[in-house]
Amino acid sequence: MGNITICGPAGLDPISARLLRGAGTHGPVVLMYHSISPGGGTPDWLWSVSYQRFVAQLDMLQAAGWTTACVSDLANCESIAARTAVITFDDGYADNYPAFEALLKRGMRATWFIPSEVVGQLSGWTKPARQMLSTEQLREIAGAGMEIGAHGRTHCRLTQVGDDCLQNEVADSKTDLARVVGAEIRSFAYPYGDQDDRVVQAVRNAGFRLACGTDAGWAFSGSDPFRIRRLSVLSHDGLSVFARKLALGSNNVSWKRVGCYAYERARARFLSRSGLP
Ligand SMILES: [Zn+2]
Q: Distance from the CA of 152 to the center of ligand 1, in angstroms?
């Protein structure tokens, strides 16, 4: 299928709009953002969403009847309403501050995963280095009812460090950030999504309740609270792509994938009606 004329609500193509109307029945969806760049358009960095696109995504979520929650709310997943989106920001870039204000203005919530050792400094893992949110900003974000989670201390790959370093990266990020925001830190996100059984055990032992990876899917499709799945929101994602990610629970929302999804749903409906196994 080629380009589709934009004519649906909120600038969505009709198929994506229809998919969005039926979305939200598979449990919560966790969205992963990194940088939010000022202005509009498509930033060069894949992991940067323009502020205008971000705000349009928030408005579309609200218009479609979605509510937002923080990652730690997922510990009581039975009480999570249908059409719940959990907005997460990894790394804590300073350009996230206007995104925080946009969320606050709309009564929406989000979780920020912060590498504790670089608060207020420059990121050492991006080229060019990027300014990080300050201690004062993190306190303000936490004080406004948003969640601060941990993302290690230095944003290193946790599967590649020794046991002592792993312990420092995980447990110390929890205590360091608790000191910054004056509240318990309950959630963790693995830098680069890099984890194995040893890393997961270290996160569990440190007293975190939940942890997010970068594998795509509905939040609990892996049914492990220490391997919560997330969907990536990327620089070039238009509203229709964003809507289809919510509906399909996948980062792959090509029209071919949409066709497979529609076939699978129709087949499941047919089998449940016909009583076939
Ligand atoms: Zn990160």
A: 9
- pTM tops 0.85: yes
Interatomic CA distance for residues 63 and 159, integer angstroms: 41
- 204: CA distance to ligand 1 center in Å? 19
Both tokens of 30, joined, read 């966790």
Short-list 149, 88, 147, CA closest to 114: 149
The Cα–Cα gap between 74 and 221 comes to 13
Q: Which candidate, 153, 143, 99, places its Cα nearest to that of 121?
A: 153
Spell out which residues have Cβ within 5 A of ligand 1, the ion: 90-91, 191
Alpha carbon of 190 to ligand 1 centroid (Å) = 7
Over residues 215-263, the pLDDT tens digits come to 999 998 878 999 999 999 999 999 999 999 999 999 999 888 888 888 8
Q: Which domains, from first to last, does the chain contain?
A: 9-274 (3.20.20.370)
Q: How far is the CA of 129 from the centre of ligand 1 (A)?
A: 13
CA of 268 to the centre of ligand 1 (A): 38
